[in-house]
Amino acid sequence: MHLVHAQSSRPAAPAELGLDAMRQIVANASKHGTPWSGPESGPAAQPGATIAIISEDLRNGGILGVGKGIQEAAKIIGWKTKIYDAGGTPAGRTGALTAALALKPDGVILVGVDVKEVQAQLGPFEERKIPMVGWHVGPHAGPIVGSPIAMNVSTDPLDVARITAMAAVVESEGRAGVVVFTDSNFEIAMAKSNAMADIVRACKGCRLLEIKDVAISKSAELMPAATQDLLARHGGQWTHALAINDIYFDYAAPELTRAGKSSKSINMLSAGDGSAGAFLRIRAGTFQTGTVSEPLNLHGWQLVDELNRLLARQPVSGYIVPVHLVTADNIAFDGGLQRQYDPDNGYRTVYRRIWKR
């Protein structure tokens, strides 16, 4: 398999980094207008395919954004798509996968579904030799070993997490008091929250106050009380909130306002995915100061390209998009004014050229 990797410096291990080194890494991740570093060649479009899109939970802005990108690219390449929403529950996943199998699709795209949770249910698809790709279906970008997923499209989750945590350390000049929000139902979420915690622990002047486990699917009902509890127990020591997804802050920010906290008293930074709400908070200066925003629409196009390669019986490209930190200083670029990170690097033109469309 030929892998095309983004040319970016991987963050060093936490113990190796001082504040100046973190400051440089954060500055590099915050640059805008980065040129296209992905594939330049591949198979022409394989039109006429029927593709099942199985989404973990369409209430999640990241999942919804990727789905829109898939549909945009599928229309260009000439595919029919059918979306199944699992609603964030085990029963929903079973129902979505059962319905998708009944469709007899030519290919399958999993969006946000933890592959370990559905490993057994993917067997029938594998038996029928239906090619499968996914977005955020495991803790690492690339092929998922021991599963039928030929390519997990993602930025590097651990780089995303480390840069998010480094941004908090840099903002605080090495004196952050941090709460990390995660969801233990997902392996990728735990990998990201552990990586963030490691950065905070390695900062001598910082303090990891707590790792708070809140299910993403229940964030609307659980986050208000969780935020109140954290304020009561940690008070002024809590200066930074880190999360594996922006959705937590949708419900934490109003509680902080109701508690009389100023927008500068607690800074929020998210290791994914760059929701519209996050962009609004960053632009307004309301608690959130950063999000490592994934190029959701681009990832949708990449999923279509990777699946097209499989349908043409060619290997996936293996491309991993560089990490990008959205802040108030760069939010006016790369689609930020439309409340999304959509790189201005001509990726649509490149993929259309590859597909001859």
Write structural notes for this entry.
This protein has helices spanning 19-29, 61-77, 90-103, 123-127, 157-171, 187-202, 219-234, 247-258, 276-284, 296-311, 347-355; strands spanning 50-55, 80-85, 107-111, 132-135, 149-153, 177-182, 207-213, 240-243, 267-270, 288-292, 325-326. The chain is α/β, with parallel strands linked by helices and 357 residues long. Strands 7-6-8-9-10-11 form a six-stranded mixed β-sheet, with helices on both faces. A five-stranded parallel β-sheet has the order 2-1-3-4-5, sandwiched between helices. Helix 8 links the parallel strand 8 (240-243) and strand 9 (267-270). It is globular, with a radius of gyration of 20 Å. The model is unreliable at 1-9 (pLDDT under 50).
How many β-strand runs? 11
> Can you write the helix and strand succession as a string?
HEHEHEHEEHEHEHEHEHEHEH
Strand order in space, largest sheet: 7-6-8-9-10-11
- Portion of residues in beta strands equals 15-25%
Q: Approximately how much helix is present in the residues?
A: 25-40%
End-to-end gap: 25 Å
Low-confidence stretches: 1-9
Number of helices: 11
Main pleated-sheet profile:
6 strands, mixed
Structural class: alpha/beta
Q: What's the overall geometry?
A: globular
Radius of gyration over all CA atoms, rounded: 20 Å
Mean pLDDT comes to 93
